[in-house]
Protein 1
Amino acid sequence: MYLLTKNQRDFAVTEAEKGRIAIKQRGYTIPAIESHQITPAFSEVSGSFCPTKRDVYLSRVLKLRPKLKEEMVKGGIVHSSVALVFRAIKNAQEKGTSIEIVLDTLKDMLSLDEKIVAALWQENRLSDLQSLCKQNGVSYEMELPTYIKIVKDIIAFETYRLGASSKDSLTKIMDVEEYIDGADLGLSKGRIDSTVMIGSQTIIVCDLKSKSFGDNMDGKVQIAGYALAIEKKYNVPISIGCLVFPPPRLLENNEPQREIFVIDDALRSEFISRRDSVLSILREKTPPPIPAGMQRKCIKCGQYSNCQSLKQEN
Ligand code: SF4
């Protein structure tokens, strides 16, 4: 998913140069803020389901657990599987191991279910799946093969794409699922899907999404938050973000869709402004209103039943 095409790499390098000159607001220049008793996650600032952040209020202030949704569990398993592959590529790049050895390792993973299961288990993904099955009253043993197939399909897809890539121009994988401390931004830890490097100085923050939504604003704002945190931690400028959408069918010649963009001052300010709204909800402990026109969407929200109970209480 994170191996960019030549055109995408060229585009990123050109845009990074523009960003280096234009962007004023960097993580290492903005002042740290005082931490609050409840620190929200990066995803709660920019990626929560509810436009008014009522879902964040329910889980953080009232400490009500959201219901697990099938798409979330599937999304988690896709993320873990992609991470498994890219960790192998990263390790090989660091050790100077040949890509053929990585390809052999990945092919081995395809024939060993237990290895995959064990790797996923470490990520707590299978415990999510167990909870989902329990919640929905279905058999975990019956569901497991469907999820193992998702893992295998991803590994097979990535193995093919790695094999087909030009070996001397591979994107350098800097990190995979790196935890980043959001404390200076008033946030908890965030987990960045991947950071990659093009050439000697263009660092790109990548975020894997299940679907593209119009202008993908939430995803871009979330990457802006990660960029601010990385800049603060490593004191390096990050100017480019990349949203990655797996193809709907993991066929060998289906390229993932990628949106590469400059993490400009507008996105950075939007992240800070959304963070301040979430912090104020958590500080004041006042339930945000139910947004208008959400009736049909609300049913898909993990906090739907808790939200309805709160509505009846008020
Ligand atoms: S059910 Fe609707 S109003 Fe309630 S938290 Fe979820 S999205 Fe927001």
Note: Residues 70-95 form the longest helix (26 residues).
Protein 2
Amino acid sequence: MTESVRKCVGCGKSDSRDALERFVMMEDTVIFDMRNKAPGRGAHVHANPACLDRAIQSGFAKSFRSKVQLKDDFSSQFVGSIFQRLKEAIRVSFRSGDLVFGGDLVASAMKNNKVGLLVLATDSGESVARKFEANADRKSILSFGGIPGAVLGAVLGKDFISVLGISANKAERIHQDLENLQKMGFWDTDLNPVSNMGIGIANGEEQILEEIVGREYDRT
Ligand SMILES: [Zn+2]
């Protein structure tokens, strides 16, 4: 965790660098620095519609001190990239043993204090949700409950996942992306896990992941 502070070019307020998303300018075009490592000067923005709108209206131009170009689907690309980053983080966590899903496994991981973030599907069922939420509350672990079970499942190649636990070392970053996508209204849109957003997982999943991780600006 870095302690450094940056100013949002939307609302103008300072915040920790980790709470802001970074954009860079490449050949007059503003690009979302999804992995926070593109060279050059960056402009930072809170991932919410109000800050992003203001950045688009004037904040980026002021920050980069020049006319800027934005693609027509700038906002939806931005949100799509956050979702892509989230999917990768979830898949990587699963591979590294930092993620469990399903009621029994998550319950036992929580019991052993191995869960830093609890993710509950919006449609996980009231009694399941209540039980896990109470547990998370008691143990003071992060929780998020805004994602449909079919979408959560599709990220890991399953039909439906009602509850998922992520270890503490991966918890904050994933929690933030889940929250940011909520602020951007992403979970409210009509998410069809099979046909939309490319979250269906085909056979060559490894390859797809490699491709995604290896390619910086594949959509710009
Ligand atoms: Zn802001």
Note: Strands lie at 5-7, 14-16, 21-26, 29-32, 42-45, 99-101, 117-121, 142-147, 163-166.
